[in-house]
């Protein structure tokens, strides 16, 4: 019985520490957005996207539907959803 419990504990540890993909697609996008948002204002300027999210920068004017000179995570999410 003791060996069985050790085996189960080892299996649980392995599963908790394995290199499985972390987070959903939305979470990964939010993480990238937050990293690119260098001044942490919740918005990305064209310059921030050029540095931190170059593929997004190529579509900046399409994503910035309000033409404010910045994009939000919700605008980026809506753009990505429309492209799927």
Molecular structure report:
This is EF-hand domain-containing protein. With 84 residues, the protein is mainly alpha-helical. The chain has helices at 2-17, 25-36, 46-52, 54-57, 60-63, 73-83; strands at residues 44-45, 70-71. It has a single domain (20-83), classed as Recoverin, domain 1, CATH 1.10.238. The chain is built from 6 helices and 2 strands, in the order ααβαααβα. Strands 1-2 form a two-stranded antiparallel sheet. The chain is globular.
Task: Give a short overview.
This protein is mainly alpha-helical and 84 residues long. It is built from six helices and two strands. The chain is globular, with a radius of gyration of 20 Å.
């Amino acid at each position: 019985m003791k060996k069985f419990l050790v085996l189960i504990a080892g299996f649980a540890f392995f599963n908790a520490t394995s290199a499985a993909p972390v987070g959903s697609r939305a979470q990964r996008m939010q993480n990238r957005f937050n990293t690119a948002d260098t001044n942490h204002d919740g918005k990305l300027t064209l310059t921030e996207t050029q540095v931190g999210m170059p593929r997004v920068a190529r579509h900046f004017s399409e994503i910035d539907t309000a033409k404010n000179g910045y994009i939000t995570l919700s605008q980026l999410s809506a753009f990505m959803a429309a492209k799927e």
